[in-house]
Amino acid sequence: MKIEVLGTGCAKCKALYENTKRALEESGKSAEVAKVEDIPSIMKYGVMSTPALVIDGQVKFSGKVASVTEIMGMLS
Amino acid sequence: MLKSFADYIVFTLLRLLPGSRGGEALDFFIYDTLKIFLLLTTIIFVVAIIRSSFPPEKTKRMLSHKREYVGNVLAALLGIVTPFCSCSAVPLFIGFVESGVPLGVTFSFLISSPMVNEVALIMLWGVFGWKIALIYIGTGLLVAIVAGISIGKLKMEKYVQDYVWEMQVGSAEIKIMTLREKLDYAREYTLALLKKIWPYVVVGVGLGAFIHGYVPADFLARWAGRDNFFAVPVAVALGVPLYSNAAGVIPIVHALMEKGMAIGTVLAFMMSVTALSLPEAIILSNVLKKRLLATFFGIVATAIIIVGYLFNAIL
To answer: Does the annotation count A10 as an active-site position?
Structure first.
């Protein structure tokens, strides 16, 4: 599984990155979490409000910081 | 009810004298803080539910290939309901321009979205009353529409950073939220926003209460009254660095108005605080060349100054 956190480096994007890592730890899954900060890569996904979460190339949501439990639901 | 509650605490429980400076200032502080937090909580929640139905992807689709005028009006109105955070100004701008939203229409959105936002409106309503809040919405939309049309007429597409036009934009599918998800979103949104702005509200209302109680009336009439020609431009210039603290600035400005600051100057100052911000300019310089960025700031500042003079003259 490949997870990407899209965001241009604002406080919310960091919060989402942390939540994602915590969700992985708590669910005991292992996956590579990448922070995507460059605009062209973000735009490739058509995301217009950051932060956004992409799992295996699919945009799960954008424009909010999802909670750890919410992300755990998306991981399974 | 809130007023008698505040009176009860200050004059009965704390036994401060009605009419005393300290007593009046504290009474004012408690009443205003309670009222504003009540308004903030309910209205932010309602606005968040409306917003969950207008993701930026949907707004973009509605504005794509719209003509001038109609497009500018629609963009300014959508700016009220589409969630916007200056940290996503760049992806938003690229997404709009790439999908064929005209440049001027995009600017109408970019101006209206931060300026006509729910926090500023609630604070204006709670502190100044609904008339001023309505005037602010109306003139705010007008500034966004007129400034967007002007930028569109200037044909400044070549002053958008070149890479923007070559960008490959994917299309994310829009997820339609269920009512349950909307309520969850609204709850989280309200809590997060309140958590962010409450210190500003408390400090702002506190300073406002202090000015209300201790600064002599007409203190500002000479400098910020309607007869001072420079008051409006100076107020606009002061608003630029005070970015996004509308929640804290409004109660202070209200107290200043009581001490003689003219209403047009107050409106111009508020608009400058919300619409013109240094951090947003820095973020936008990623997609705009200097000339377009300066034109954008210049046109919006001019429009706001005109609004200021106009309301100083007619109200």
So the answer is: yes
